[in-house]
Amino acid sequence: MNDLTLPLSSTPFIGRDAELIKIRQCLEDPACRLLTLVGLGGVGKTRLATEVARHTIESFPDGVFFIPLQPIESPDIILPAIAHSMRITSAPDTDIKQQLANFLKGKRRLFILDNFEHLLPNAPYWWLTHSTRFMIANFSSHRAKN
C-alpha cells in the first residue's frame, strides 16, 4: 500500500519540465537523502515539490508524505509532525526518535517538508541516515540571510 498525503491542486501544472526531470533524477539517486528547493516566496517551490512527488510515487512504494511546518514553532516538534503524517501514535516509554527510526528502517519513503526555513538553526538531521528521501520546499533565500 502506498500512502500519499499531498495537498490537492486546483489548477493544472504547466511548464517547468526541465526542473521536474532534474529533481526526479536527484531523488532517484540512492546517494541523495536530502534535496532542498531554494527560491523567493511565491515562485512555486511547494507546487513543484508536490508535482514531482506525484510523478515519482512509483519510486517510493512505502509512501509519499507532505508535512507543512509553517505552524510549528520549535524544531522539537519536527519529529512528532513526521510521525503524525505517517499516523504513528507515540507509544508510552518509547523515544519518538527511536520509534521513527524503527518505522523508517528499510523503507522507501519521500517526505516533503514545507516551510522549513524558520526551524533550520536547531533542526535534527539524524533521519538522513535512513533509506528515506526528504525534499524541503519553501526555503526562501531571502529569509535565510536574516
Explained architecture:
This protein is α/β, with parallel strands linked by helices and 146 residues long. It has one domain (4-9, 16-144): 3-Layer(aba) Sandwich (Rossmann fold). Helix content is 31%, strand content 16%. The protein has 5 helices and 5 strands. It has helices spanning 17-28, 45-56, 78-85, 96-104, 141-144, and strands spanning 4-5, 34-38, 64-68, 110-114, 133-139. Strands 1-3-4-5-2 form a 5-stranded parallel beta sheet, sandwiched between helices. Helix 1 (17-28) crosses helix 2. It is globular and about 50 Å long. The model is unreliable at 139-146 (pLDDT under 50).
**What is the beta-strand fraction?**
15-25%
Total domain units: 1
Write out the CATH superfamily name: P-loop containing nucleotide triphosphate hydrolases
Low-confidence runs of at least 5 consecutive residues: 139-146
| Percent in helix | 25-40%
| Assembly classification | single chain
Order of helices and strands: EHEHEHHEEH
CATH secondary-structure class: Alpha Beta
Overview features:
Rossmann fold; 16% strand; disordered C terminus; globular; five-stranded parallel beta sheet; 146 residues; alpha/beta
